[in-house]
Structures are given as C-alpha cells and as structure tokens.
Amino acid sequence: MARHAHVAGRAAYDALVAGASADYTGYWARIARKFVEWKTPFTQVLDESDAPFFRWFADGTLNVSHNCLDRQVAAGRGDKVAIVFEADDGQVSRVTYSELLARTCRAANALKAQGVKKGDRVVIYMPMSIEGVVAMQACARIGAVHAVVFGGFSAQALRDRIIDTEAVLVVTADQQLRGGRALPLKAMVDEALALGGCQAVRTVLVYRRTGGEIDWVDGRDAWLHEATEREPDTCEPEWVDAEHPLFLLYTSGSTGKPKGVQHSSGGYLVQAAVTTQWTFDLHDDDVFWCTADIGWVTGHTYIAYGPLAVGATQVVFEGIPTYPDAARFWRMIEAHRVSVFYTAPTAIRSLIKAAEGRGDLHPARFDLHSLRVLGSVGEPINPAAWEWYHAHVGGGRCPIVDTWWQTETGAQMLTPLPGATTLVPGSCTLPFPGIDAAIVDEAGHELPNGQSGLLVIRKPWPSMIRTIWKDKARYASSYFPPELGGAYLAGDGAMRDVDTGYFTIGGRIDDVLNVSGHRMGTMEIESALVACTELVAEAAVVGRPDDTTGEAICAFVVLKQERPTGEAAARLAAELRQWIGREIGPIAKPKEIRFADNLPKTRSGKILRRLLRSVAKGEAITQDVSTLENPAILDQLAEAH
Ligand code: WT7
Q1: Is the CB–ligand 1 distance for residue 380 below 6 Å?
Q2: Which are the contacts of 591, defined by CB distance < 8 A and separation ≥ 6?
Q3: Pairing of the two strands 46-47 and 55-56
Q4: How far is the CA of 518 from the centre of ligand 1 (A)?
Q5: Segment 199-245, tens digit of pLDDT
Q6: Minimum CA distance residue for ligand 1 atom 14
Q7: Are 637 and 556 in contact (CB under 8 A)?
Q8: Which pTM does this prediction carry?
Q9: How far away, in angstroms, is 305 Cα from ligand 1 center?
Q10: Does the C-beta of 415 come closer than 6 Å to ligand 1?
C-alpha cells in the first residue's frame, strides 16, 4: 500500500512537513495550483495584514462547481459515476459526472430565474439526496452562499438561521425518509416562515421526494423539478474571488446563540481537495463513502465538495445505519464495493452493540474485502471501538484514519495518512502536512509532550473559518484570545505522547457537548428550557459520559411549581423534552432531566457546574463545597435520580 499511496511512507510525510516549515506559503501555493483550477491565477498567497481576518489566494479567481464538475468532465471523467445513491428503502440510482454537471446547471439556472444573485444566501433544508448535493453545487456555480440546515433541526431553529442569513430562497423537500418513516420538511419550512421575521424569503423550491401531502403557498412555493426542467443544462460559472464566501454553516458555541461559520471559496476548496486525496489515499478506481449528513461540515467537505474536486466515485446514503437492521452499512459496503469508508465512533459503537446479541448482524458475515482504508470522525474513538472496527470491519488490514477537525477548520487537521503513519488506537496522530498544531497552557506557552493543555493552531491555514457571519468581534474573541498571541484556539483539550509526539484529544474545554458526534451548546439547551416560561424557573445543563453516544445531555431544572416526584416528574420531563425538540430539534433532547428546588450556587449566585457534572455521573461529591450557599441541595439532586 505504501508504495502506491499519495504520501508514500513516513519519509515522504516528513519531507512535506519540512517543506511546509521551510516555506509555508510556498508549500500551500504549490498545493493550491495542483488541486484547483484557477480562472485567474493568484499572485498573493497569504495576506495577514488584517489578522485574525486572514485572506488566502486573494487575487485569484475560480468557481468551485467548475472545479468539481466541468474540470472532471474535461479530464475524461464524464462517464464516470460521481454518485451512487442508495435510498432509505434500498433503491439505487447513479449519476455520472456529465449528468451531475447538467443537473447542477439546470438548478443554477433555476435559482437565477428566481432572482438569486451572487452573494445572496440560500438556505438548504434537504434530505440526503443527489438533489441536496446539486443544490449546494448550484449555489456555488452562481456565487450564491448556501447555509445548509440539518433536517433534524426544528422549525424554530430553521427560522433563526433563515433570519440570521437573510436568505432569499429556501430549497427543501416535501418529506424525508429515514428508517422507513416519512418526516416532514416542507411543513417545517412553512412553520418557520409563519413564525415571522423571514421577509427576505421570496421562494421555496420543493423537491418531491415522497409525494406526501403538503400545504402550498401560491406565488411563493415552486416544485424543484418544474423549475429545473424548463432550464437549459448549461450555465456559465460565476467566477468569484478566492475569498468570496462559499457557505455559512451554523454550529454551537459556548453562548446560547449558534454561530454562522463563514467559509471561503478558494482556500476551502484547496484543502477539501488535498485532504480528501491524501487522508483517504484516494485513487481513480476507489469507491468512497462518507456516512455523514450534508447538514454537518463533514457532509460539506467530504461529500459535496472534496470527493467531487478529486473526481472520485462516492456513495450517498439517505437512510440510517440501523434500518432495516444494523447490518445496513456492511451490506452496502459489500454491494457497492466500497473501498474507503468514513464514519463516526458513535455509529461504530451502536453497531458493535447490535452485533453482540445477533451474529447475523456481525460484519464478519459480509464480504468486505473491497475495503482498503477506514476513517473515523466527530469525537474521540475509544480504543475498544477502534480495535473492533480495525479487526472486524477492516479485516485487520485497513488503516484507520482518526481525523480530528471542526466546522471552523473546514478540513481535516490532525490525522494519520494511510501508509505513512504508524497507527495508535485512540490517537489522531499527527498534523496534516502544512498544519502547525501545538499544545499550550492558558498563557500560550507550549507544553512539553506528556502534559495536557489547550490545542491550538499557530499558523493560519487555507480552509480556516473567515469570520462568524455578522459577528466579527465574536470571531476574534472566541478563536484568537489575546493571551495566545495570535494562535487559533480550537476549544479542545489535548496531549502529545512523550515518545511519538502523537496527539490525543481529550474533549471540549468549553460548555460544548458532543452527543453522537453532534455538537451541542449547553447554554443553547438552557436558553431553550427557560424559554418555557410557564414551567421553568431555572435550568442548568451538563454532559455526562455515555457508552454509546459519547456524551449524554443531563438537565437540572427548577420549576415554577413545586418540585414534582414520581409519575408527575416523568410526565413533566417528557413535556420538557418535547419542548426542546420543538425549540432546537430532537438531537438536543436531554437524556435525563432532574427536578430540584434549587441549583447548587455560590453566595454570589454562580451555578457550580462541576458539581452538577459529578452529580450527573453519579459520583460522590469529594470537592470542597464550602463556598456553596445551599449545600443541602446536593443530596436532593443525587436523590432525584
Ligand atoms: C469537535 C468539532 C469534524 C467534523 C465533525 C465535527 C470533536 C471531531 C474528532 C476526533 C476527537 C473529535 C472535537 C471538535 N472531534 N473529530 N477525530 N477525535 N474529537 O465537527 O461539530 O464542528 O465538532 O468535534 O471536540 O472540537 P464539529
């Protein structure tokens, strides 16, 4: 494998790292020329004059969709399958690069016909589908900025994003199919728009996925197939500056309000392409499958852009790993001869559990010999899950690339490279060549290997976040705190191994949870709870470790009424979980809600979350509680379980 790999061995990796450290901008310029076709070649590489607002390749122009589609057709990949789509019910359809280009052009023309212009924002609220990818590519083609909202977010969350982006158009579907169930999408858009404040939206384009009953607003709603059918299948790409925003993607931070992470066109595409090719060691005959949803950054970089930018064939899957049963992934890998498979630890852990009691669901029952490389993303992978994945899915022969990155980094940052990096279960090993990662203390001093501290990236990189939409100050203060001297603060704790220098990620250092690889802000859930003004007086949300989902959400709630017990408590907890489902989405529903007369507070009124974390874990409180105003409350909280 090492002989044929793009980065063929540790010496090749070391040479790249040395090249990047000797001439940082020269290194990235070479990659940018190799992986992206520029309309106007750039002459500037990195502009740091307005740090931390960095600009990459700023005088170059390009079009992302041209790079992903036209360029592949021109390179002779017109008849190559770009996407193998497998629907929830198992039906399979395929599109070639030529077809994907034609469909993207029709959709781009349809957007233009609806008055969407360069720089306008388009919200995409779609199921996993070829149409979803086409909608993203169509925006890129005309220079519109997409903001994909995960289909599991509620009407209220969708509305917040429509308002913040001032979107002029929403692309959605009548319904989405997941695990044999039809779930509403168009109805959620209707509800979001009815809640008000979304006056910029002129059009709702509706992809007919199921044909299920939906309401219709004449003059506003249009069928996607009708709007695209009448359009020509060519569309001149809009050439944009490298810094032109390609997309906004909302993610949780440590305050109640999600942040609209803004990404660029040029730098983003450069790094999406090079990481897709090197991290997965992707070759022309590979079949790549990333199981993420296009609603998350992984689905942006490793479905909608990276694989297409390197001309790969990829599987796109509509459904869920456990339907019709927990062997779905193995069956699909076998059927589509998947060679590179990229999924999340939470999925692996749930499939391990499922296979424990049912031999017929075990990957050993399937022919998975097509697999060559496995990937993991979204949260730390525990060594036991790593070993199982390696032995039973990868047959002991496939390297696992444990890729650490974030919505903000745009692309993988710390990861092994197949054939170049000796693997250690549970470690994302070393920086991607050209990434300057380090572990520092709170004052910004680099720590010796073996000591845990803050993970930072010391030099700007091409696919980095450009700003938080409409909130430059929050961008600067969240990611570039002054004490770190200009380094990017990732928000994760981490440590480097004493001997190898390998990185191991501990987890978030802020009030952000990782539940099944989904990022959730505790403040966001608290705000949602206290927004239930009739019931809730006060709430605090913490995470606790969970065997399957990594972390689980645990909420402590003080009601306006007397503290409920027994059945009344169960009923109210169910009511609040439903409320959160409506305010944010089902992914934010707490696993556990405990009611109390009060929360543990200092005399100055500060809630002591570390105590709540111990209570949630079921630990005995050993910390000093002398600063507590109301120590007796701890017994009540522990009992409330
Ligand atoms: C947070 C970012 C990256 C795409 C999906 C998540 C955690 C991510 C790993 C990994 C340990 C990981 C971090 C990070 N994380 N990958 N391989 N090992 N932790 O993107 O929603 O922006 O979340 O996910 O805590 O900060 P995201």
Answers
A1: yes
A2: 546, 549, 552, 553, 554
A3: antiparallel
A4: 9
A5: 999 999 999 999 999 999 999 999 999 999 999 999 999 999 999 99
A6: 406
A7: yes
A8: 0.96
A9: 19
A10: no
